[in-house]
């Protein structure tokens, strides 16, 4: 028995059946979380130091590094990225 291979839409959340609006927000959250994890790893920060820099508790950094995306709103992730010195922008494609 062979499995069917489907071409991705470019957004895994749409591929998983989320509505386009929900998928867009989920993709933004996933991208921001990945960027924040990369920031922590690149700077070789401990969770305690990352928490100090980002102004949150160490347990929130643990949630972030473990990918617990459901615990972070898009607004919170934008705030954390800004605190990390990142410039967050929204690109709108037609």
Please describe what this structure looks like.
By secondary structure, this protein is an all-alpha fold. The protein is built from five helices and no strands. It has helices at residues 12-15, 20-42, 47-54, 58-65, 74-83. It is globular. The mean pLDDT is 92.
Structural key phrases:
globular, 0% strand, 5 helices, mainly alpha, 94 residues
The total beta strand count reads: 0
Largest sheet: none
Low-confidence stretches: none
The radius of gyration is 16 Å
Q: What's the quick description here?
A:
The chain is mainly alpha-helical. It contains five helices and no strands.
Give the topology.
Blueprint: H1 12-15, H2 20-42, H3 47-54, H4 58-65, H5 74-83
Helix pairs in contact: 2-5, 3-4
């Amino acid at each position: 028995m062979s499995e069917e291979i489907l071409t991705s839409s470019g957004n895994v959340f749409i591929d998983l059946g989320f509505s386009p609006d929900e998928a867009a927000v989920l993709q933004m959250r996933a991208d921001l979380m990945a960027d924040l994890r990369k920031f922590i790893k690149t700077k070789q920060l401990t969770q305690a130091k990352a928490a100090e820099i980002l102004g949150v508790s160490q347990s929130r950094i643990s949630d972030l590094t473990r990918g617990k995306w459901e615990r972070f709103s898009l607004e919170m992730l934008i705030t954390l990225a800004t605190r990390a010195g990142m410039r967050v922008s929204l690109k709108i494609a037609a």
